[in-house]
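Every protein is a chain of amino acids, and every chain bends into a shape of its own. The protein below has been through that process, and both of its lines are reproduced in full.
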Amino acid sequence: MAKVNFTAARVEAHRCIEGKSQSFLWDSKTPGLGLRATAGGAKAYIFQGKIHGSTVRITIGDPRSWTIDRAQERARGLQTLIDGGIDPREHEAEQKAAHEARQVAKRRQDATVSEAWERYLDHLRTKISPKTKKPRSERYIVDHINLSSPGGGIAKRGGKEKVRGPLAPLMPRRLSEITSTTMADWLEVEISRGPTNAAHAFGLFKAFIRWCDTHEAYANTISHDAYASPKVKGILPRSVAKDDCLQREQLSAWFGAVRTIPNSVISAYLQGLLITGARREELAALRWEDVDFRWRSLTINDKVEGTGGRTIPLTPYLASLLLNLQRLNETPPNRRQAARLAEKGEHWAPSEWVFASKTASGGKIAEPRHAHNRALLPTGLPHMSLHGLRRSFGTLSEWVEVPVGVVAQIQGHKPSAIAEKHYRRRPLDLLRMWHVKIETWMLEQAGIEFRPEQTAPSLHAVK
């Protein structure tokens, strides 16, 4: 292997020998330093040496970027590593890995809560819940968005200025700044604004911190003490179990208020919650394909049962409400409305949702609480949550002396007793007998005159 003293002229003149894929020129001054020229005309300084009996060849760089002196210095450094028993390739790989680790650590330290929060929201939208084995509800996602909202601007509903969410002050902070002290200071401020909202926001943020620990980009940036330390737990408001429930004598005022809500979809939905005892999201997700008017049944996407859901009776009064919604849903738009749709490039079609909404992004009812609260305000009734209506169904059914297992099966509760779990699975017609009694009793207490036989023919007429 002939060697020459590298000069600028020799480096410039070196070419690949004709008929070969590459040719080498070796420096006589620096052991291992060579100049490679390929048949395509490319040139590069290289280093070649031996370690543990194996040949090592490493590309240094293009002669247009590397001077001869720098290339010689680089080759001497590589030879020094070999003399010390270190493979230059492994050394470079370790340096590269260390550099990347430092970059990841820096990005992790610089990452803000808002950046990680957005990725967390994407995770919630696209992954199923490990608890329910189903996608998260739209309301659950909206809760996260609202609680972290910076506020400002005018709300579409009510025309008032939007108030910031309790998590908004944490969003600009770096993840590494979230400590037990930070959380304690934040809680003190937010509890003064609203203890219930603060506790709810804290619960969601606690789940977010746990998710960060499972995400490679954010792992170990927030200590568990941020939510588990005595300093934080001592400030956190105690959660009080809700016990809101309609009393028998309150049914008249409640039905009277809800039946006058101008939006017939919301009115029917709220009455449906009380009459079926269903969870709010279960009933909101009801599709027309889940309603069987002929055999008088509803198939609800059950939180507990999962795929297939549970089938419950469709009671006469509720059936009349749904028939009215079906009629409205299948009524085509007038000419003016059709023209507006055409201008937007849209075509009218009946909604698949029983409780449809033209404003909600999902096409179905999303937030009926405001209308419910406004309707109850003049009645003097105590605050009633939507889940309180579910609780009311279970409680009021005792007036009719309905077996506990019947109520549990209609509401979709897990069987508790051994007999209920393994030996009681009542058929739909038996559930219907008791369910109709519950509905009839509720209507009697509310002073609503309704004769089931008036709707019975239309029920069987629907195919």
